[in-house]
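In response to reviewer comment 3 from the previous cycle, which asked for concrete evidence that the modeling workflow produces usable outputs, we include below a single protein chain processed end to end. The sequence was submitted unchanged, and the resulting structure tokens are shown without manual editing.
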Amino acid sequence: MTLRGWRERMSPQDSGLEAGGERRIPGLRREELARLAGISVDYLVLLEQGRARNPSAQVVTALARALRLDPSERDHLFRCANLASPSAGTISRRTPMSVR
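The workflow returned the following structure tokens.
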């Protein structure tokens, strides 16, 4: 329900897409969101229906970015996916010895 609600509140123009004719419901179509997030439509359907059990952090991040979620909404999406929210902190410039 959460993904669908966020998808329906976004217009194609908000995401940089062409409106493309008459729409029965407001917001982005599944195909449009899937294209913006770089995932398949089938996988998006599974996510919306709650049948995809373990989405990766990369997929959840791509969806949050495509839906232009604010930080609290993004964190909620991560919690829905049973993932830790990305840190809002800074990235360390120190290179670990194991990498050097």
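Helices lie at 2-9, 30-37, 41-49, 57-66, 71-80. We consider this sufficient to address the reviewer's concern, and the full set will be provided in the supplementary archive.
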